[in-house]
Amino acid sequence: MTQVKRAVVLVSGGMDSAVVLAIAREQGFEPYALSVKYGQRHTSELDAADRVSDAMGATHKTVVVDLRLIGGSALTDAGIDVPDAGGPGIPVTYVPARNTIMLSVALGWAEVLGAADLFCGVNAVDYSGYPDCRPEFIEAFERLANVATKAGVEGAGIRVHAPLLRMSKADIVREGMRLGVDFAQTVSCYRADADGRACGHCDACRLRADGFTAAGIADPTRYVS
């Protein structure tokens, strides 16, 4: 009897994590989708995460880690405006230690589930310049996971998968289409409204739109105006 492989997949509700969830499923994993309500400006992405997880038959859990108590980011601090486009250096939309925290929560759930695999949608090609989206971060976290957990010390070890790491946004769009991802269900905007409609101006909107254009595929994103 073949043993089912379980994996915890970080699902934000955006296009990238939807593709990663589809990849994990195609690779034969039983996916457990994890979303984090970290105090982001809107919950439209979390609503999208519910839709995406349900559409792909994944068990879905949302945990709360309120990073507004720390602040320091335009996505969690009402006193910092979200810019229309990113400039040089690390942008103000970077949330301090967000990916480290979310992967740590995913790691804990994986141990409970007996899962040895974590999936996340970080990308180091068409991205906003966040330090926790680089290959060095993924490699370092995997090393940490294997010295900080019972599964790493006594079990088969923990693997951190970042299948989009070196893909362009256009490649991600194409991969999602191949896997049957319904991008209309996803929300990527930093300033989306309560209905999930995108602003069309922030860095996340720009990267998403450019990806669909470069892939030659119609963009199903709903915009405010």
From TrEMBL:
Principal EC category: ligase
Cofactor(s) this protein cannot do without: Zn(2+)
UniProt key word Transmembrane helix: no
Binding site for Zn(2+): 189, 199, 202, 205
Keywords noted in UniProt: ATP-binding, Ligase, Metal-binding, Nucleotide-binding, Queuosine biosynthesis, Zinc
Source organism superkingdom: Bacteria
UniProt pathway annotation: Purine metabolism; 7-cyano-7-deazaguanine biosynthesis
Family statement: Belongs to the QueC family.
Record protein name field: 7-cyano-7-deazaguanine synthase
Organism of origin: Noviluteimonas caseinilytica
Gene symbol of the encoding locus: queC
